[in-house]
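Record type: monomer structure entry
Structure origin: computed from sequence
Chain ID: A
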Amino acid sequence: MTTLRSILLVEDNPDDERLTLRALRRGNIVNEIRVTRDGEEALNVLFSLESLPCVVLLDLKLPKVDGLEVLQQIRANTRTRLLPVVILTSSSEERDIIESYNLGANSYVRKPVEIDPFAEAVRQLGLYWALINEPLPGG
């Protein structure tokens, strides 16, 4: 039997966190979801995990260490450099999009403003990364 790998959600907005968790659960994602609320905590948790998550859902505008720095540190570490990272942010700034991809983001998803489209986007992300995508062996 295959062990389900966790999802790491890095989100400092409590409302977006609740909506994301609800959307993943309604999408029948049963993977454990670990939540961190700032970039420093995300890096500490990620680098201490025995088993890497199947995906990191990463906000950009975070306290302590911003999302771009988190992504840069993930890609700089040999153990996590291939870990899928999806930027999930409200930023539509072109420089954020370009820099995210330059640093190795696997995807850039702008959070829709309305609740229903946001929930559907998160549900589809969860389904893809937790169930459809073939993870890197030995993660």
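Annotation 1: The first strand starts at residue 7 and ends at 10.
Annotation 2: The first helix runs from residue 14 to 26.
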